[in-house]
Amino acid sequence: MRAVVRAETWPIRGGFRIARGARAAAEVVVVQLHDETWVGHGECVPYARYGESVDSVRTEIEAVCRTLQSSGGREEVLAMPAGAARNAIDCALWDLEAKRAGKPVWELVGLGCPPVEVRTMRTVSVDTAERMKAEAADLANARVIKVKVDGGADLDRIAAVHEAAPKAELVIDANEAWSPEQLARWLPLLRKLGVAVIEQPLPAGDDAALDGLERAVPICADESFHDRRSFAGIEGRYDMVNIKLDKAGGLSEALYCIGEARRLGLPVMVGCMVSTSLAIEPALLLTSDAEYVDLDGPLLLETDREGALHDRKAGLLRPSSSIWGAA
After folding, report:
1. Exposed e or buried b for every residue in 231-269, given b needs 16+ CB within 10 A?
2. What confidence tens digit (pLDDT) does each residue in 178-210 have?
3. Quick check: is 192 catalytic?
4. Are 91 and 324 within 8 A, CB to CB?
5. Is 133 annotated in the active site?
6. Secondary structure class of 42 (helix, strand, coil)
């Protein structure tokens, strides 16, 4: 089996800002796995928060792919650390397996039907309250809006977004930027501002501060949840988990995690990094079991991959068999 690995840069429409900083483009790594007949494709997003870079992920992918067996190699891939590199290889293997078997990936993983059109939540980046209000006004018809905050004047920002889009549910994503004191002080006020979920308000190392905390809205684990090993650390502290392929290390692990979350009675959000539709197509297989879908990564880009069928204006994600996962 031969692997081709490359880095790509995709400009973001208007930029993207969260608590950890701003970006003008999505930096992704793409892997193509070639056998004698077929090519499997996968994409990942290296994330500095987890010690990843484009160079480190490319190096990891190339090292593993040199030893992949032509018959598959999924067991070897699952022995890798969870993260972006494993995600790209795992998804490429699923795509390759579908082509070899003459069956789509949704059928190979045991789903009863193919993924269907789904509406994703939309994102308002961190900015001044006035600018966030204007951005939210353009998304006023969205059912769910994710509001990025950073621990500053966040109540003003949330109130401004709620005023601009009063019918939308708000998911507040602090990306670990709040303190336990801020969380305790602001929690009782958020429900009246249209907030339905708070995502990762505290640093992952401060999870114990959630023990016994009364909450008016549920709290979702993101940076505190990666793969199956994370369940023990979030038990009794979080009310929901955000499953992302780049954190879990691929579709195989994400499928396990979503099944385990269901067994434990934990609602699921399916999330993503800012990426192209090649990274989103595998995640669409998880959406039927998710309470919240946060897969607007490609909708944030200036352009997407050829063959993408999504509707940016309506926030609708439509699976494209020409990109990934088809026989």
Report:
1. beebeebbbbbbbbbbbbbbbbbbbebbeebeeeebbbb
2. 999 999 999 999 999 999 999 999 999 999 999
3. no
4. yes
5. no
6. strand
| 35-70 pLDDT per residue, tens | 889 999 999 999 999 999 999 999 999 999 888 865
Helix H segments across the chain?
54-65, 74-78, 84-101, 105-108, 129-137, 154-164, 180-190, 231-234, 245-248, 251-264, 277-283
- 233 shares its domain with 95: no
Residues 6+ apart with CB under 8 A from 102: 327
| 14: its two tokens | 């208007």
Within 13 Å, how many C-alpha atoms sit on residue 255's CB side? 17
Residue 289 makes CB contacts below 8 A (sequence gap 6+) with 258, 262, 268
What's at 205, amino acid-wise?
A: G
18 in any annotated domain: yes
Instruction: Label residue 100 exposed, middle or buried (CB < 10 Å: 0-12, 13-18, 19+).
Output: middle
Number of structural domains found in the chain: 2
Domain match, 43 and 160 both: no
283 conformational bin, left if phi > 0, alpha if psi -120 to 50, beta if neither:
alpha
Given 99, 133, 146, 244, the catalytic residue: 244
Closest CA to 162 of 128, 185, 137, 187: 137
Cα(117)–Cα(2) distance, integer angstroms: 34
Computed on alpha carbons and rounded to an integer, the radius of gyration of the chain in Å comes to 19
Closest residue by Cα to residue 161 from 175, 184, 140, 188: 140
Q: Is 217 helix (H, G, I), strand (E, B) or coil?
A: coil
> Are residues 80 and 126 both part of a single domain?
no
Q: Which of 99, 133, 146, 148 is catalytic?
A: 148
**DSSP code at position 297:** G
Q: Euclidean distance between the first and final Cα of the chain, in Å?
A: 19
Name the pTM for this structure: 0.95
* The residue to which tokens 């979080």 are assigned: 238
Asked if residues 154 and 175 have their Cβ atoms less than 8 Å apart, the reply is no
